[in-house]
């Protein structure tokens, strides 16, 4: 595969169009189009959806990951040759919002000392972050999938525990003879993809779900629970910090979510450094 053709594919996906990719690469749109056609001819498949924004096909995602791996290795080589700023590489990672707000923070402190890398963090639910690895959008991801994506390696980080909790006033308003009136007490969820609260209710035998507020921010989710807007599954680390502010645990079994670190299986000093930082931060989680 021609490296310049692969770089054109990466540029199109990064910028969203052939014209913008041409500007990024310093060539004409016609040259970008010719490189993609040549790459598609070589692969024998359509690699780019000609839409706005342009996006990779399933086959294109495979080559996109290859393109980004080669670019990462190129940046490592430039750094080794003393190229300075030219050796700085963008490190794209997928992290779920709750992890980013809690145990992942030390990774950011470590990254602040790196002169050869800039972070590009993608917020994605831990159940779906492995999809970004498959597409080649990120080189590493915090995920719940223990099975390594093709071309990647996986290792266990630990368990993130979620505890059902609410403000004292909200719980008091929905007291029941057997504990809590789950069918009536308002509930929080992070997004339409977040089904953790629903799964907890099913485990309690609840058939009719209560009014549900969507709060798509880890910090705001916690604030909403403290304000009494609804109950939610709160990360144990956040709950311990906010018990003095009035959150109280609710009856029921906590939900333990096993987390794994997956990253490209390639020899890269940057990638090894990132993996080491994530591994160290993950050591603070409950261990499986």
How would you describe this protein?
The protein is α/β, with parallel strands linked by helices and 288 residues long. The protein has helices at residues 3-15, 18-25, 29-43, 58-80, 97-101, 105-111, 130-135, 168-173, 196-203, 218-227, 236-242, 269-282, and strands at 48-49, 55-56, 89-95, 117-123, 140-143, 152-166, 175-176, 179-180, 187-189, 212-214, 232-235, 248-249, 255-264. Among the domains are: 1-87, Winged helix-like DNA-binding domain superfamily/Winged helix DNA-binding domain (Arc Repressor Mutant, subunit A); 160-257, D-Maltodextrin-Binding Protein, domain 2 (3-Layer(aba) Sandwich), CATH 3.40.190. The chain is built from twelve helices and 13 strands.
Relevant terms:
Arc Repressor Mutant, subunit A, 288 residues, two-stranded antiparallel sheet, seven-stranded mixed β-sheet
Q: Which spans of ≥5 residues are poorly predicted at pLDDT below 50?
A: none
Summarize the helix and strand pattern as letters.
HHHEEHEHHEHEEHEEEHEHEHEEH
State the CATH architecture of the domain at 160-257.
Answer: 3-Layer(aba) Sandwich
C-alpha Rg, in Å? 23 Å
Shape: elongated
Average of per-residue pLDDT values = 89
From the N-terminal CA to the C-terminal CA, the straight-line distance is 42 Å
Main sheet overview: 7 strands, mixed
Tally of contiguous helical segments: 12
Number of strands: 13
The CATH homology group name of the domain at 160-257: Periplasmic binding protein-like II
Helix content: 40-55%
Pairing-aware structural class of the strands and helices? alpha/beta
CATH-derived topology of the domain at 160-257: D-Maltodextrin-Binding Protein, domain 2
CATH class of the domain at 160-257: Alpha Beta
SS strand fraction: 15-25%
